[in-house]
Amino acid sequence: MKKSKSEIQDAYYAPGSTIRDFFRSLFIGHGGSTQDAVHVRDAIDVKRTMTLVGLCLLPAILFGIYNTGLQAKLALIAGATAASGWQASLFTSVFGPLSVESGFFSTFTYGLSFFLPIYFSALLTTLLWEMVFAKVRHQELHEGFFVTALLFSLCMPAHIALWLVVLGVSFGVVVAKELFGGMGYNFLNPALAGLAFIYFAYPSEVTSSAQLVAVDGYSGATTLAQVAANKLHFTDYHWYQAFSDSNWWQAFLGFEVGAMGETSTLALLLGGALLLLTRLADWRIVAGVMLGMIATTLLFNYLGNSRSAWSAMPWTWHLVTGGFALGMMFMATDPVTTAYTRPGKWLFGLLVGAMTVVIRVANVKMPEGIMLAILFANLWAPLMDSLVARFNIRRRIKRNGLQ
Protein backbone atom coordinates (compact mmCIF):
# COMPACT_ATOMS: atom_id res chain seq x y z
CA MET A 1 0.00 0.00 0.00
CA LYS A 2 1.40 3.36 -1.07
CA LYS A 3 1.93 5.82 1.78
CA SER A 4 0.47 9.28 1.61
CA LYS A 5 2.62 12.41 1.66
CA SER A 6 1.63 13.18 5.26
CA GLU A 7 2.60 9.65 6.38
CA ILE A 8 6.00 9.98 4.73
CA GLN A 9 6.57 13.34 6.40
CA ASP A 10 5.51 11.95 9.79
CA ALA A 11 7.96 9.08 9.40
CA TYR A 12 10.78 11.39 8.30
CA TYR A 13 10.17 13.85 11.12
CA ALA A 14 9.54 11.22 13.78
CA PRO A 15 10.74 12.15 17.29
CA GLY A 16 14.50 11.89 17.36
CA SER A 17 14.95 11.33 13.62
CA THR A 18 15.91 14.91 12.76
CA ILE A 19 18.22 15.09 15.78
CA ARG A 20 19.80 11.75 14.93
CA ASP A 21 20.31 12.74 11.28
CA PHE A 22 21.74 16.08 12.36
CA PHE A 23 24.47 14.58 14.56
CA ARG A 24 25.21 11.93 11.92
CA SER A 25 25.68 14.61 9.26
CA LEU A 26 28.30 16.37 11.39
CA PHE A 27 30.74 13.50 10.85
CA ILE A 28 29.45 11.46 7.89
CA GLY A 29 28.93 12.85 4.41
CA HIS A 30 26.15 11.66 2.12
CA GLY A 31 27.52 9.08 -0.31
CA GLY A 32 24.73 9.24 -2.87
CA SER A 33 24.84 11.11 -6.18
CA THR A 34 22.17 12.39 -8.51
CA GLN A 35 21.47 9.93 -11.35
CA ASP A 36 18.67 11.75 -13.16
CA ALA A 37 18.54 15.15 -14.83
CA VAL A 38 21.18 17.79 -14.26
CA HIS A 39 20.91 19.69 -10.97
CA VAL A 40 22.50 22.95 -9.91
CA ARG A 41 24.88 22.17 -7.06
CA ASP A 42 26.82 24.17 -4.51
CA ALA A 43 29.28 22.83 -1.95
CA ILE A 44 28.19 25.37 0.66
CA ASP A 45 25.37 24.47 3.02
CA VAL A 46 24.43 25.64 6.51
CA LYS A 47 26.73 23.12 8.19
CA ARG A 48 29.79 24.12 6.15
CA THR A 49 28.97 27.80 6.50
CA MET A 50 28.80 27.61 10.28
CA THR A 51 31.98 25.52 10.39
CA LEU A 52 33.87 28.14 8.40
CA VAL A 53 32.57 30.94 10.60
CA GLY A 54 33.72 29.02 13.66
CA LEU A 55 37.18 28.58 12.14
CA CYS A 56 37.33 32.30 11.37
CA LEU A 57 36.54 33.02 15.03
CA LEU A 58 39.27 30.67 16.22
CA PRO A 59 42.05 33.34 16.50
CA ALA A 60 39.84 35.51 18.71
CA ILE A 61 38.77 32.50 20.79
CA LEU A 62 42.29 31.27 21.45
CA PHE A 63 43.62 34.71 22.26
CA GLY A 64 40.60 35.51 24.43
CA ILE A 65 41.15 32.35 26.48
CA TYR A 66 44.82 33.19 27.02
CA ASN A 67 44.10 36.84 27.80
CA THR A 68 41.54 35.81 30.43
CA GLY A 69 44.23 33.88 32.28
CA LEU A 70 46.80 36.64 31.70
CA GLN A 71 44.58 39.39 33.13
CA ALA A 72 43.90 37.21 36.17
CA LYS A 73 47.63 36.74 36.68
CA LEU A 74 48.27 40.49 36.33
CA ALA A 75 45.50 41.14 38.87
CA LEU A 76 47.20 38.79 41.32
CA ILE A 77 50.39 40.80 40.90
CA ALA A 78 48.39 43.94 41.69
CA GLY A 79 47.22 42.41 44.97
CA ALA A 80 43.92 40.74 44.03
CA THR A 81 42.65 37.60 45.71
CA ALA A 82 42.52 34.33 43.81
CA ALA A 83 39.09 33.43 42.48
CA SER A 84 36.96 31.32 44.80
CA GLY A 85 34.41 30.00 42.30
CA TRP A 86 34.02 26.39 41.24
CA GLN A 87 35.85 27.04 37.95
CA ALA A 88 38.97 28.18 39.78
CA SER A 89 38.61 25.33 42.29
CA LEU A 90 38.48 22.79 39.47
CA PHE A 91 41.56 24.32 37.87
CA THR A 92 43.42 24.34 41.20
CA SER A 93 42.59 20.69 41.89
CA VAL A 94 44.15 19.65 38.58
CA PHE A 95 46.95 22.14 37.90
CA GLY A 96 47.50 23.83 41.25
CA PRO A 97 46.78 27.47 42.07
CA LEU A 98 47.40 30.17 39.48
CA SER A 99 50.38 32.31 40.45
CA VAL A 100 52.52 35.04 38.99
CA GLU A 101 55.08 32.37 38.03
CA SER A 102 52.54 30.33 36.01
CA GLY A 103 53.64 29.63 32.46
CA PHE A 104 51.79 29.82 29.17
CA PHE A 105 50.05 26.47 29.52
CA SER A 106 48.73 27.18 33.02
CA THR A 107 47.63 30.67 32.03
CA PHE A 108 45.80 29.35 28.96
CA THR A 109 44.19 26.51 30.89
CA TYR A 110 43.01 28.90 33.59
CA GLY A 111 41.26 31.02 30.97
CA LEU A 112 39.83 27.87 29.40
CA SER A 113 38.29 26.86 32.73
CA PHE A 114 36.20 30.05 32.62
CA PHE A 115 35.42 30.09 28.89
CA LEU A 116 34.22 26.50 28.50
CA PRO A 117 31.43 26.70 31.14
CA ILE A 118 30.10 29.86 29.51
CA TYR A 119 30.21 28.38 26.02
CA PHE A 120 28.73 25.01 26.96
CA SER A 121 25.94 26.74 28.89
CA ALA A 122 25.10 28.83 25.82
CA LEU A 123 25.53 25.88 23.45
CA LEU A 124 23.31 23.45 25.36
CA THR A 125 20.65 26.12 25.85
CA THR A 126 20.50 27.01 22.16
CA LEU A 127 20.52 23.33 21.20
CA LEU A 128 17.62 22.65 23.56
CA TRP A 129 15.49 25.43 22.09
CA GLU A 130 16.38 24.43 18.52
CA MET A 131 15.34 20.84 19.25
CA VAL A 132 12.04 21.98 20.79
CA PHE A 133 11.08 24.20 17.87
CA ALA A 134 12.32 21.72 15.24
CA LYS A 135 10.10 19.03 16.74
CA VAL A 136 7.06 21.32 17.03
CA ARG A 137 7.42 22.57 13.45
CA HIS A 138 8.50 19.22 11.97
CA GLN A 139 11.61 20.87 10.55
CA GLU A 140 15.22 19.86 10.22
CA LEU A 141 17.67 20.85 12.94
CA HIS A 142 20.04 23.50 11.61
CA GLU A 143 23.58 24.11 12.77
CA GLY A 144 23.24 27.85 13.28
CA PHE A 145 23.09 27.47 17.05
CA PHE A 146 26.84 26.69 17.11
CA VAL A 147 27.78 30.19 15.95
CA THR A 148 25.02 31.90 17.97
CA ALA A 149 26.34 30.33 21.18
CA LEU A 150 29.92 31.13 20.22
CA LEU A 151 29.30 34.80 19.43
CA PHE A 152 27.24 35.23 22.58
CA SER A 153 29.98 33.64 24.69
CA LEU A 154 32.67 35.90 23.25
CA CYS A 155 30.69 38.96 24.40
CA MET A 156 30.55 37.74 28.01
CA PRO A 157 32.81 38.80 30.89
CA ALA A 158 34.85 36.01 32.46
CA HIS A 159 33.13 36.07 35.85
CA ILE A 160 29.50 36.22 34.71
CA ALA A 161 26.92 33.99 36.39
CA LEU A 162 25.97 31.05 34.19
CA TRP A 163 22.24 31.55 34.82
CA LEU A 164 22.57 34.92 33.09
CA VAL A 165 24.16 33.20 30.09
CA VAL A 166 21.24 30.77 29.90
CA LEU A 167 18.68 33.54 30.31
CA GLY A 168 20.26 35.83 27.73
CA VAL A 169 20.81 33.27 25.01
CA SER A 170 17.29 31.87 25.60
CA PHE A 171 15.80 35.31 24.96
CA GLY A 172 17.90 35.78 21.83
CA VAL A 173 17.05 32.39 20.32
CA VAL A 174 13.36 32.24 21.26
CA VAL A 175 12.21 35.86 20.95
CA ALA A 176 14.51 37.18 18.23
CA LYS A 177 14.69 34.02 16.10
CA GLU A 178 12.31 31.13 16.66
CA LEU A 179 9.11 33.16 17.16
CA PHE A 180 9.64 34.62 13.69
CA GLY A 181 10.14 31.29 11.93
CA GLY A 182 13.61 30.11 12.87
CA MET A 183 16.70 29.90 10.68
CA GLY A 184 16.62 32.50 7.90
CA TYR A 185 13.51 34.31 9.13
CA ASN A 186 14.86 36.29 12.07
CA PHE A 187 15.18 40.05 11.58
CA LEU A 188 17.47 40.59 14.59
CA ASN A 189 20.81 39.01 15.36
CA PRO A 190 20.00 36.44 18.10
CA ALA A 191 23.31 36.81 19.93
CA LEU A 192 23.04 40.60 20.05
CA ALA A 193 19.38 40.49 21.03
CA GLY A 194 20.20 38.21 23.97
CA LEU A 195 23.11 40.42 24.96
CA ALA A 196 20.93 43.54 24.84
CA PHE A 197 18.29 41.82 26.99
CA ILE A 198 20.60 41.00 29.90
CA TYR A 199 22.45 44.29 29.40
CA PHE A 200 19.31 46.27 30.20
CA ALA A 201 17.64 43.76 32.54
CA TYR A 202 20.71 43.10 34.71
CA PRO A 203 23.16 45.97 34.07
CA SER A 204 25.01 45.58 37.35
CA GLU A 205 25.65 41.89 36.63
CA VAL A 206 26.91 42.39 33.08
CA THR A 207 28.64 45.77 33.03
CA SER A 208 30.29 45.59 36.46
CA SER A 209 34.06 45.96 36.22
CA ALA A 210 34.41 43.24 38.85
CA GLN A 211 33.07 40.68 36.34
CA LEU A 212 35.78 41.30 33.75
CA VAL A 213 38.72 39.67 35.51
CA ALA A 214 38.62 36.08 36.79
CA VAL A 215 39.74 36.90 40.35
CA ASP A 216 38.06 38.16 43.51
CA GLY A 217 38.24 41.69 44.86
CA TYR A 218 39.56 43.32 41.70
CA SER A 219 37.87 45.78 39.35
CA GLY A 220 39.33 45.98 35.88
CA ALA A 221 38.49 49.04 33.78
CA THR A 222 38.23 48.68 30.02
CA THR A 223 39.51 51.38 27.68
CA LEU A 224 35.92 52.49 27.10
CA ALA A 225 35.35 52.78 30.84
CA GLN A 226 38.54 54.84 31.23
CA VAL A 227 37.40 57.24 28.52
CA ALA A 228 33.95 57.51 30.10
CA ALA A 229 35.58 58.33 33.44
CA ASN A 230 37.76 61.01 31.80
CA LYS A 231 40.92 59.08 32.64
CA LEU A 232 42.01 59.12 28.99
CA HIS A 233 42.18 62.42 27.11
CA PHE A 234 42.69 63.04 23.41
CA THR A 235 43.14 66.80 23.30
CA ASP A 236 45.41 67.70 20.34
CA TYR A 237 45.70 63.97 19.59
CA HIS A 238 45.68 63.19 15.86
CA TRP A 239 44.55 59.85 14.53
CA TYR A 240 47.97 58.92 13.07
CA GLN A 241 49.67 59.39 16.45
CA ALA A 242 48.07 56.14 17.58
CA PHE A 243 50.54 54.13 15.50
CA SER A 244 53.41 55.40 17.66
CA ASP A 245 51.46 55.05 20.92
CA SER A 246 52.28 51.94 22.97
CA ASN A 247 48.87 52.07 24.67
CA TRP A 248 47.14 51.91 21.30
CA TRP A 249 49.22 48.92 20.21
CA GLN A 250 48.38 47.17 23.47
CA ALA A 251 44.68 47.74 22.78
CA PHE A 252 45.09 46.64 19.15
CA LEU A 253 46.81 43.41 20.14
CA GLY A 254 44.27 42.82 22.91
CA PHE A 255 46.35 42.67 26.09
CA GLU A 256 43.76 44.53 28.14
CA VAL A 257 40.67 43.97 30.26
CA GLY A 258 37.42 43.31 28.42
CA ALA A 259 34.91 40.72 27.32
CA MET A 260 36.44 37.34 26.57
CA GLY A 261 36.51 37.59 22.78
CA GLU A 262 36.44 41.32 22.09
CA THR A 263 39.84 42.61 23.18
CA SER A 264 42.12 41.59 20.28
CA THR A 265 41.35 43.69 17.22
CA LEU A 266 44.21 41.98 15.39
CA ALA A 267 42.78 38.48 15.92
CA LEU A 268 39.31 39.61 14.88
CA LEU A 269 40.59 41.33 11.74
CA LEU A 270 42.57 38.23 10.76
CA GLY A 271 39.52 36.01 11.20
CA GLY A 272 37.32 38.58 9.47
CA ALA A 273 39.71 38.72 6.52
CA LEU A 274 39.29 34.97 6.05
CA LEU A 275 35.54 35.45 6.28
CA LEU A 276 35.72 38.01 3.47
CA LEU A 277 37.98 35.80 1.33
CA THR A 278 35.50 32.93 1.55
CA ARG A 279 32.72 35.42 0.65
CA LEU A 280 30.66 34.39 3.63
CA ALA A 281 30.69 38.07 4.58
CA ASP A 282 30.20 40.96 2.18
CA TRP A 283 33.06 43.45 2.03
CA ARG A 284 30.61 46.28 1.33
CA ILE A 285 29.17 46.01 4.83
CA VAL A 286 32.61 46.03 6.45
CA ALA A 287 33.74 48.97 4.31
CA GLY A 288 30.50 50.81 5.08
CA VAL A 289 30.95 50.33 8.83
CA MET A 290 34.52 51.63 8.67
CA LEU A 291 33.63 54.63 6.50
CA GLY A 292 30.61 55.49 8.64
CA MET A 293 32.68 55.29 11.81
CA ILE A 294 35.58 57.34 10.40
CA ALA A 295 33.36 60.05 8.88
CA THR A 296 31.28 60.48 12.04
CA THR A 297 34.38 60.51 14.24
CA LEU A 298 36.04 63.19 12.12
CA LEU A 299 32.87 65.25 12.31
CA PHE A 300 32.83 65.06 16.11
CA ASN A 301 36.57 65.79 16.22
CA TYR A 302 35.94 68.98 14.24
CA LEU A 303 32.73 70.15 15.90
CA GLY A 304 32.94 68.46 19.30
CA ASN A 305 33.82 69.95 22.64
CA SER A 306 37.52 69.60 23.40
CA ARG A 307 36.66 68.93 27.05
CA SER A 308 34.82 65.75 26.05
CA ALA A 309 37.11 62.75 25.67
CA TRP A 310 34.55 61.02 23.44
CA SER A 311 34.27 63.94 21.02
CA ALA A 312 38.03 64.25 20.72
CA MET A 313 38.62 60.48 20.47
CA PRO A 314 40.19 59.66 17.04
CA TRP A 315 38.85 56.93 14.80
CA THR A 316 41.94 54.77 15.35
CA TRP A 317 40.93 54.43 19.00
CA HIS A 318 37.27 53.74 18.20
CA LEU A 319 38.50 50.83 16.09
CA VAL A 320 40.35 49.09 18.94
CA THR A 321 37.96 49.78 21.83
CA GLY A 322 34.99 47.72 22.97
CA GLY A 323 33.47 45.19 20.63
CA PHE A 324 33.76 47.30 17.48
CA ALA A 325 35.95 44.85 15.57
CA LEU A 326 33.83 41.85 16.58
CA GLY A 327 30.64 43.66 15.63
CA MET A 328 31.99 44.92 12.32
CA MET A 329 33.46 41.62 11.11
CA PHE A 330 31.06 39.01 12.53
CA MET A 331 27.82 40.63 13.77
CA ALA A 332 27.02 43.25 11.15
CA THR A 333 27.84 40.81 8.32
CA ASP A 334 25.18 38.31 9.39
CA PRO A 335 23.63 37.46 5.98
CA VAL A 336 20.13 36.98 7.42
CA THR A 337 19.65 40.23 9.32
CA THR A 338 21.48 42.61 6.99
CA ALA A 339 20.35 44.21 3.72
CA TYR A 340 20.39 42.04 0.58
CA THR A 341 20.90 44.59 -2.20
CA ARG A 342 24.36 45.98 -2.86
CA PRO A 343 23.42 49.65 -2.27
CA GLY A 344 21.46 48.47 0.78
CA LYS A 345 24.60 46.83 2.18
CA TRP A 346 26.48 50.11 1.86
CA LEU A 347 23.67 51.98 3.61
CA PHE A 348 23.49 49.32 6.30
CA GLY A 349 27.22 49.51 7.01
CA LEU A 350 27.29 53.31 7.01
CA LEU A 351 24.39 53.40 9.48
CA VAL A 352 26.10 50.93 11.84
CA GLY A 353 29.39 52.83 11.82
CA ALA A 354 27.78 56.24 12.29
CA MET A 355 25.38 55.10 15.01
CA THR A 356 28.19 53.45 16.97
CA VAL A 357 30.05 56.74 17.31
CA VAL A 358 26.87 58.74 17.99
CA ILE A 359 25.86 56.39 20.83
CA ARG A 360 29.34 56.47 22.34
CA VAL A 361 29.54 60.27 22.25
CA ALA A 362 25.94 61.09 23.19
CA ASN A 363 25.43 58.50 25.92
CA VAL A 364 28.45 58.29 28.20
CA LYS A 365 26.71 55.67 30.36
CA MET A 366 26.61 53.29 27.39
CA PRO A 367 30.07 53.48 25.81
CA GLU A 368 29.63 50.17 23.97
CA GLY A 369 27.65 51.47 20.98
CA ILE A 370 28.19 48.76 18.36
CA MET A 371 25.60 46.40 19.89
CA LEU A 372 22.70 48.85 19.72
CA ALA A 373 23.90 50.24 16.39
CA ILE A 374 23.66 46.82 14.70
CA LEU A 375 20.26 46.05 16.24
CA PHE A 376 19.02 49.46 15.11
CA ALA A 377 20.32 48.86 11.58
CA ASN A 378 18.69 45.39 11.54
CA LEU A 379 15.32 47.08 11.89
CA TRP A 380 16.00 49.37 8.93
CA ALA A 381 17.51 46.75 6.60
CA PRO A 382 14.17 45.72 4.94
CA LEU A 383 13.33 49.38 4.28
CA MET A 384 16.74 49.94 2.70
CA ASP A 385 16.19 47.05 0.28
CA SER A 386 12.68 48.31 -0.49
CA LEU A 387 13.95 51.80 -1.30
CA VAL A 388 16.70 50.41 -3.53
CA ALA A 389 14.20 48.21 -5.40
CA ARG A 390 11.78 51.12 -5.91
CA PHE A 391 14.57 53.37 -7.16
CA ASN A 392 15.70 50.73 -9.68
CA ILE A 393 12.15 50.18 -10.91
CA ARG A 394 11.58 53.89 -11.48
CA ARG A 395 14.97 54.29 -13.17
CA ARG A 396 14.29 51.45 -15.59
CA ILE A 397 10.78 52.68 -16.34
CA LYS A 398 12.15 56.11 -17.14
CA ARG A 399 15.04 54.68 -19.21
CA ASN A 400 12.70 52.56 -21.34
CA GLY A 401 10.29 55.43 -21.92
CA LEU A 402 7.36 53.73 -20.21
CA GLN A 403 6.38 56.82 -18.25
Automatic annotation (TrEMBL):
BP GO terms, sorted: respiratory electron transport chain; sodium ion transport; transmembrane transport
Catalytic EC class: translocase
GO CC field: plasma membrane
Membrane spanning residue stretches: 49-68, 74-96, 108-129, 149-176, 183-202, 257-278, 285-303, 315-333, 345-363, 369-389
Cofactor(s) it depends on: FMN
Catalytic activity field: a ubiquinone + n Na(+)(in) + NADH + H(+) = a ubiquinol + n Na(+)(out) + NAD(+)
Annotated GO MF terms: FMN binding; oxidoreductase activity, acting on NAD(P)H, quinone or similar compound as acceptor
EC number(s) per entry: 7.2.1.1
Name under which the protein is recorded: Na(+)-translocating NADH-quinone reductase subunit B
Organism annotation: Shewanella fodinae
